[in-house]
Every structure is written in structure tokens, then in C-alpha cells.
Design goal:
Layout lengths: L18 E7 L2 E7 L8 H24 L13 H11 L7
Helix pairs in contact: 1-2
Length: about 100
């Protein structure tokens, strides 16, 4: 995998989209991902990301290293689906908050 410094900090410029920073570390690459939101995201929804992103990145790492995906079964955290359904009802389609 090649490192492209032009794709370093700030990848993912859409608000709320995860941002990544990839840096060469010896013969490997260190990936750091952060996510920011311009609104108060309910804790139940944040917990979904806190659970989901590590599993997604671990699966990606496994595929890259071994060519085989991880067999991880995850369910949404308690309350996450209800929180998303609530937001769909109360946030206008235009995305205004």
C-alpha cells in the first residue's frame, strides 16, 4: 500500500464525515480516525459508532493482512434504532436542526 501525503489530514471534508490521517510507521501505516458533528448527537447513536467503527477497521485490517474477512456479528446498541427513528421524525428532510 502506498502512502500519498496529498491524502493525509483532513480527508473527509463533509461535516460529520469521519476524517482520517494515515502516516507511514516503518513498514506499516498508522491510521487515525476521528469524527466530529456540528450538532448534539444522541448518546445511543454515538454508541453505535463507537462500537461499529472499531469492528469495521479491524475487519479491513484482517482483509488487507490475510485476504480473509473477520466473522464478527454485531447488533446495534440498545436504544440506537429508536434514537435514529426519532431523529427521522423530528429533523426536516432538508437537514436543518
Amino acid at each position: 500500500m502506498d502512502f500519498d501525503p496529498a491524502v493525509g489530514p483532513g480527508v473527509g471534508s463533509v461535516e460529520g464525515e469521519p476524517r482520517q490521517l494515515s502516516l507511514p510507521v516503518g513498514g506499516t501505516v498508522r491510521l487515525t480516525m476521528t469524527e466530529a458533528h456540528s450538532w448534539d448527537v444522541p448518546a445511543a447513536i454515538l454508541q453505535g459508532g463507537q462500537t461499529g467503527w472499531p469492528a469495521i477497521l479491524s475487519g479491513l485490517k484482517s482483509v488487507l493482512e490475510t485476504g480473509k474477512p473477520l466473522d464478527v456479528k454485531l447488533a446495534p446498541p440498545e436504544g440506537m434504532i429508536e434514537a435514529v427513528k426519532h431523529l427521522v421524525r423530528v429533523v426536516p428532510a432538508s437537514g436543518e436542526r
